[in-house]
Each structure stands twice: as C-alpha cells, then as structure tokens.
Amino acid sequence: MIPSVLPTYSRAPLSFETGEGSWLMTADGRRYLDLGAGIAVNALGHANPDLVNALTAQAGKLWHTSNLYEIPNQQALADALVEATFADTVFFTNSGTEAAELAVKMARKHFFEAGQPEKVEIIAFDGSFHGRSSAGIAAAGGDKLTKGFGPLLPGFKHLPFADHDAVAAAITDKTAAIIIEPVQGEGGIRPVPDQCLKGLRDLCDEHGLLLIFDEVQCGVGRTGKLFAHEWAGVTPDIMMVAKGIGGGFPLGAVLATEHAASGMVAGTHGSTYGGNPLACAVGLKVMEIVSDPAFLGEVNRKAGLLRQKLEGLVASHPDVFDSVRGSGLMLGLKCKAVNMDVVNAGYGAKVLVVPAADNVVRLLPPLTISDDEISEAVSRLEKAAGAVENSK
Ligand SMILES: *Cc1c(COP(=O)(O)O)cnc(C)c1O
Predict the structure, then answer these.
(1) Which of 146, 251, 279, 356 has its CA 20 to 30 A from that of 392?
(2) Which residues line ligand 1 (CB under 6 A)?
C-alpha cells in the first residue's frame, strides 16, 4: 500500500523535535551535529533568535495580503538585494525551482520583446541541478531527473561541465542564454573555475547572450562572499537565489539587470505567495546579518579551519576518502568508500552530512558554526570513517 506521504524520498529513520544553532535534538534527547543545515537552508543555524524575532514580530502583525498591494518589507528586501549586488530588480518566489522557472521565462521574453523571437535556446551543463519543475528538469537534463517525465520543455542544450570550447561551438543564432551554478551542489560540490566563469561572461558579451547564475545553493554567504560569482569578478544578467536567503522560511528570488528584465512588464509573471510579509521579514534579517563584511570574514576563517581539518581526515582515512573540494562552507568529501555508507555511519556518530552525485558527501554547515563545533564535527566524522573501515 502506498504510504500516506508520497514515497518520493528515501529518508533516514530519524526525526527531530527541536534545533538550536548547529544542533538538532530528537524527542528522546539525542543531539546531532548538523553539517547539512537542511541542504544549505539554515544558513544562520536552527532557531536563530534574530530570525525567530523577525518572524514572530511579523506574524503578530500581518501574514499575507497578495501582490495586489504594496508590501513594504518586500520593497525593503528588494532594495537591499539591489544595493548589495549587480542587480537592478528582484522578483520573489517561494523556492529555487520557481526562481528557475522565471529565469528561463525572463531570458526568452527578453529576446522576444527585443525583436529576436528565434532566440530561445539555453545552454546548460552536465551534472547541474535547477529544481524539479518541468523547466528545471529540462534545464538540468540528467536522466535521473527527466526519465518518464517527457515531453520535456524544449530548447536546452547540454554540454560537458565547464567546457569552454564546447560552449563556444554550441552557440548559434538561436541561443538566448547560458545557465550555470558557479558551484555545482547536487552534482557533487564542483566549483566552476573562475577562468571559466569569466570565459562564459566574455562569450555572452560577444554574442549578446544572457548569463544566468543559479546561486540557489552556493549563494547567500555560503562560499564566503555574499554570492559565489564575486570570487570570479564577473556578474550575471540573471541570478536565481533561494535556500539560505530564507534561513529556513520558504523564500526565493530572481535578481536581474534592467536589460535582462526588460520584457517583464505588468501581467507577464506573478506568484500568490512570493514575497509575502512573513518571508520578507525573515529575508531582510538574513541579508542584514550575512551581508556584513565581518560576518563573511568569519565564514572565510572558519571555512579555512574546517577545510584544513578535513584534509587531515582524508589523509588519515585514505580508504574511505579521496579528497576535499568546494568553496567556503560548501565542501565535499569525494569518497572512495560508498558515500551513503559514510552518511549512514555519520548517523551512528551523530553528525549529519548529505550525499551528492559523483560519490561525494556534502558538508554545508550553518554559517554560524563555532570553532569548537568544527572540531567536534571532524572528530565525529573520524568516528564515522572508522566505522566504515571496520565494516569492510
Ligand atoms: C535546491 C536547488 C534548486 C531548487 O530549489 P528548491 O527550493 O528545492 O525548489 C535549484 N537550483 C539549485 C542549484 C539548488 O541547489
């Protein structure tokens, strides 16, 4: 008999009752150190007092009015994002998938309104992930995501990861945009080299294409910059954001330049919940905290500490791990053992990590993780690695 919850997830037999900072607690009092943070969502940890205050203060005033009316804290959050980034304008969604939907629509609409309706094709990369909607799976293109869900939304071309020559060769007069995650998340924590992001920007400038960055997972301080593309010194025309921006409250956004967004006039797109007062109250507080250079400095310092300790972990367990990769507090342990065995052994050692493609174990801790928690996390991972070795 089918379970009452549609069985699309393979869940761990674990549930939690409360959370505090980097910790999750079960009803019977077990404490797990959370290096997954709800897949890079709880960027400021669980039950962060500033976010709880922002949410509950707004909850006592007003939850929802719809976008029929002005929403002052949506305006304030848009202003903050425009102030802090390349963008001139922002549309709010409830998720990363919805942000991907709009990014695709916006790119196509741009060229339609510019009198180039033939420009509909979007170049994407193997191993990418852009959410689970029909546009999102068509954009990512992997068999695991798309099989059985056809006919897929047409117009996507898939190329090998970060292959500049393949991109240059694939551009035609039908090409509208290139979509890429500056650091692939689901694909196994694969940072795109800065040189490659620069090369894509150059190709887009040369051919008049729109560059779309999917920063749903790597954005909002995760890599030690407010947005990951800042490391490469290039900006996109359109950017998708979600996960960390809501700190655990559903919130996403599409950021764009005035040029890229030129087709999106009144009536061309909308969302009932997108940018509602509750989400934006939390998003504003997240932005206020994460965009502080002192906060980002701490993320970078702690990222260095964690990475150094993980290098040690890999060196002392060469049968389990192959290498460390990633950027900032978005790190991956490429495994020699089966990555799920490491994740499962982590449950035994009460440390939560997340699997990714390419046999990688992902570490996406709250950006607020302390030095002591980093040490504790690595000693728990040592224990987990030992358990994997002993089970062989
Ligand atoms: C998680 C993710 C998405 C989808 O976001 P949802 O909020 O799950 O819809 C899209 N792109 C990337 C890079 C992601 O990591």
Answers:
(1) 356
(2) 95-97, 100, 129-131, 181, 185-186, 214, 216-217, 242-243
